[in-house]
Fold this sequence. Notes:
The protein is α/β, with parallel strands linked by helices and about 325 residues long. The protein has three domains: about 5-120 and about 165-180, no CATH class; about 120-160, no CATH class; about 190-315, no CATH class. It is built from eleven helices and eight strands. The protein has a five-stranded mixed beta sheet. Strands 5-6-7 form a three-stranded antiparallel beta sheet. A hairpin with a 2-residue loop joins strand 5 (about 135-140) and strand 6 (about 140-145). Helix 6 crosses helix 11 (about 285-300). The longest helix has 17 residues, at about 5-25. The protein is globular, with a radius of gyration of 20 Å. The termini are far apart. Bound molecules: iron/sulfur cluster (3 copies). The site of one iron/sulfur cluster has 12 residues, from helix 8.
Amino acid sequence: MFRKETMEMIEQELRAKVKALLKEGKVKLVLGYQKGSLPFNATPTIVEDEASAERLIFDFSCGPGLAKYLLRKNIHSPGQKTGIIAKGCDARAVIQYIAEKQLRREDIVIIGVPCQGVIDPNRVRKKIPDKEIVGYAIDGDKFIIRLRDDSVVSLNREEVIARACLRCVYPDALDADIFITQPRKDVEHVNRYNEIMEFEKMGSDERWNYFENEFSRCIRCYACRNACPMCYCEECFVDKTDPQWFGKGTGLSDTMLFHIVRILHVTGRCLDCGLCERVCPMSIDLGLLNGKMNKEVKERFNYIPGLDPERPPALATFDEGDRQEFIL
Ligand code: SF4
Ligand code: SF4
Ligand code: SF4
């Protein structure tokens, strides 16, 4: 089930290629991952010289998105060559930024890595509640989770990997300038829209009640917004005080409004990367709402974000042939 290349092989090749890029002056810096202080969370890092490339890793803990750092002026600016170690979803974010005129393709060196999904710590903790997890290892197609009391628990890939990764259609970076090992041609994935089609069978009241129930748990921490690669406004609508669009509390109507406006802001741009859902401390089913909107955009405009840097976002263009039965 897992690729034949070991993580050690991937890391060795990754470090060697990053060192070469830096040595030859082809990039000023490279965004990547280093080991984190928690077993399931690698830490984003910036590598600017060959010695620091030794700390680069790539494994199942590399969940945080890196692409959003490219929009920080103190990290990347036009004309600077910047490398990014890119899983499929990171590369799609870069492509979408180019489509949205936030980045120039010629400034970015996409270093594709063979992504096999990332661990969702919340899913593992649900399986092993009340125990301190200190590490993990891979054994065949199993994750062996090590606990503080020296015992181990064996879990299947489907129990550990993030839900978005289990249905991911583009795990290997598209348009990579360099690829570590080889991109796959035969990616297995489930039909992303199966779950959505089941949801669509529900009546509108039932669907509303489902989301009301989900969003009633929201604590308005904004982790979903902060993690989302496509939420990059300098000032988010929820932080505006003049005009203040709605209240800041966790009352249901304000919370629902926050989620409705946020999903409208990312509709036609959402990469289905699942970061929002993975960072949510309340395990709210954000993937279902994102998936429903992505399906609508695909069906209405034949548009999947993050695939074509030349094609503007679906909702940023108008075509006379667009379906508009909701207006008439
Ligand atoms: S969404 Fe796809 S590319 Fe992104 S981490 Fe998951 S499997 Fe990898
Ligand atoms: S809304 Fe969620 S799934 Fe979509 S791009 Fe943002 S973080 Fe990824
Ligand atoms: S991360 Fe979860 S709890 Fe926090 S604002 Fe988003 S949906 Fe609400």
